[in-house]
């Protein structure tokens, strides 16, 4: 076996062999975890990324031999449960990712472990509930019901009950639901002339995502206003369901396939009709760009959607390079503390949000490029809330450092987490798309 560290080739992710029965063979899973964990033990450069690696190294260091062979395999699950699949270790730290012969893909190994655990039925009701974003959103955003849900999510008494009965931490600030769902209230303008650029299609389809549809529809409306201001014809995706990322993080890969079968046909049709497909939630964009293509590597429709799927700022930046983006900004934004979420960083598109915000006159953008620690549903859970706040502490400090007028993150959930971690502040928490709408002077 080679001892070469690193590789001159670009890192790559290999297809996920999740439909192979051996994928769910627990002894083979443990053998692969033992192989990878021993490599991680000899390297340890990921120790500062999350709590999964410190837990692994503590298990090793506290053992009688100081090596992995003294760790009971049943305790490997303590490492698995602390991984929230941010992909940062694979994308930014590990020197042994493919095409290196050691073939270390820690996040996808943890995904396999979560899938084995899910198949065994070792899943809490809370985790099934939190990952059912579409079903919960549809119910919670019903008029009248939405008022009760939002009140319950804020009341100290009911939050203590949720903590003790469900394992949702009483101190975690939860997003509100909105009865004015984005898909029901959006008025996309499809009347503009299609102007294709060298790099960009001249027409856009919006995949709203569960969060934008049920929790913060204003973000979606701001995206529509920006596109309309730039005279880009827009339509909504005809029908959509959850992208599947919450179920992926749970290890419920068959549910991911069911959602893929609902979403891909209408999305592939749009892709082949020449639409750019935009999503305002980085995790959803990543799901279509990376995870589904790795789960279904031979599906041509999945490939077509992956090629057409873009982060909004990725699209706007390319539109600017094509000379087709308006830069008639009317209002400065002052000082903006901007956080790049993990699921945007791993898309390898550069700092497109920062680049666009810095085009606004008299605006200073301070970039924080570090995991905030919330990570989907993980930071909501009672047993991980303290860890999520600890991971986020450097981010909270850096975001507050320069006395910003705005704090902003492409991940709205990370933005809320950062706001909570910062505590008392005069800064306004605003999504980057809303900042662009403000800068354009649009109502």
From TrEMBL:
<keyword id="KW-0411">Iron-sulfur</keyword>
<dbReference type="GO" id="GO:0016491">
    <property type="term" value="F:oxidoreductase activity"/>
</dbReference>
<keyword id="KW-0004">4Fe-4S</keyword>
<dbReference type="InterPro" id="IPR004017">
    <property type="entry name" value="Cys_rich_dom"/>
</dbReference>
<keyword id="KW-0677">Repeat</keyword>
<dbReference type="GO" id="GO:0046872">
    <property type="term" value="F:metal ion binding"/>
</dbReference>
<feature type="domain" description="Cysteine-rich">
    <location>
        <begin position="204"/>
        <end position="287"/>
    </location>
</feature>
<dbReference type="GO" id="GO:0051539">
    <property type="term" value="F:4 iron, 4 sulfur cluster binding"/>
</dbReference>
<keyword id="KW-0479">Metal-binding</keyword>
<protein>
    <submittedName>
        <fullName>Fe-S oxidoreductase</fullName>
    </submittedName>
</protein>
<dbReference type="Pfam" id="PF02754">
    <property type="entry name" value="CCG"/>
</dbReference>
<feature type="domain" description="Cysteine-rich">
    <location>
        <begin position="336"/>
        <end position="412"/>
    </location>
</feature>
<keyword id="KW-0408">Iron</keyword>
